[in-house]
Design brief:
The complex is a heterodimer of chains A (114) and B (115). By secondary structure, chain A is an all-beta fold. Chain A contains no helices and eleven strands. In chain A, strands 2, 4, 5, 6, 9, 10 and 11 form a seven-stranded mixed beta sheet that branches. Chain A has a four-stranded antiparallel beta sheet with strand order 1-3-8-7, with no helix packed on it. In chain A, strand 4 and strand 5 form a beta hairpin. With 115 residues, chain B is mostly beta strands. Chain B is built from no helices and eleven strands. In chain B, strands 2, 4, 5, 9, 10 and 11 form a six-stranded mixed beta sheet that branches. A five-stranded antiparallel beta sheet of chain B has the order 1-3-8-7-6, with no helix packed on it. The chains are: A mainly beta (114), B mainly beta (115).
Chain lengths: 114, 115
């Protein structure tokens, strides 16, 4: 299993600004994932972040808008850049420890863009 | 295109009854299927995983079936309790996915168990 924490837990931001979300895991993991969950919707994968390589982005998501860092095996950040109200969502960090099949999720960061 | 469908309408049942949630998929050849529970304001929590060669899996009051012919999974909660009220998500992991074993989630079904 894995215990994941995220910071901040929530934030209210002005349009045009950027927010960096931190994800900390209590064990070393190779694969980390960032998801978005818009109000009333299910989870959509933004990107996969492996330590030591560039993040892989899913269709509809680009690095300029959602830059990701993965400096070590227990930490990652996701930045939401030049925010607009459409970016209001919950952002979730997730890991697959030990090469297993189960994913564990952080508590999420609730973002509101005004 | 690949699609995962869950009943978007909330399922309301009486305490003590069995809740049955459905997950249908198209254009997938999943290696396995997973069910997660999500409470408001929280991240999803893993419940059960069932592989393509398994018909049924049980864990305490939970039972999952997997029919690769019908392309459907059923998730049952027996002797349901108000504490079981949450949104339940199914997720598929397809072999050969470009992202390398990523999960794709259905829209979730909200379960409400009334006392």
């Amino acid at each position: 299993s894995a215990v994941i924490s995220q910071k901040p837990s929530r934030d209210i931001c002005q349009r045009g600004t950027s927010l960096t979300i931190q994800c900390q895991v209590d064990s070393q993991v190779t694969m980390m994932f960032w998801y978005r969950q818009q109000p009333g919707q299910s989870l959509t994968l933004i990107a996969t972040a492996n330590q030591g390589s560039e993040a892989t982005y899913e269709s509809g998501f680009v690095i300029d808008k959602f830059p990701i860092s993965r400096p070590n095996l227990t930490f990652s950040t996701l930045t939401v850049s030049n925010m607009s109200p459409e970016d209001s969502s919950i952002y979730l960090c997730s890991v697959k420890p030990g090469g297993g099949e189960t994913q564990y999720f952080g508590p999420g960061t609730r973002l509101l863009v005004l | 295109s690949q699609k995962i469908e869950q009943n978007s309408e909330a399922l309301n049942i009486q305490e003590g009854k069995t809740a049955t949630l459905t997950c249908n998929y198209t254009n997938y050849s999943p290696a396995y299927l997973q069910w997660y529970r999500q409470d408001p304001g929280r991240g999803p929590v893993f419940l059960l995983l069932i592989r393509e060669n398994e018909k049924e899996k049980r864990k305490e009051r939970l039972k999952v079936t997997f029919d690769t012919t019908l392309k459907q999974s059923l998730f049952h909660i027996t002797a349901s309790q108000p504490a079981d009220s949450a949104t339940y998500l199914c997720a598929l992991d397809a072999i050969g996915n470009n992202a390398g074993n990523m999960l794709t989630f259905g829209g979730g079904t909200r379960l409400m168990v009334k006392p």
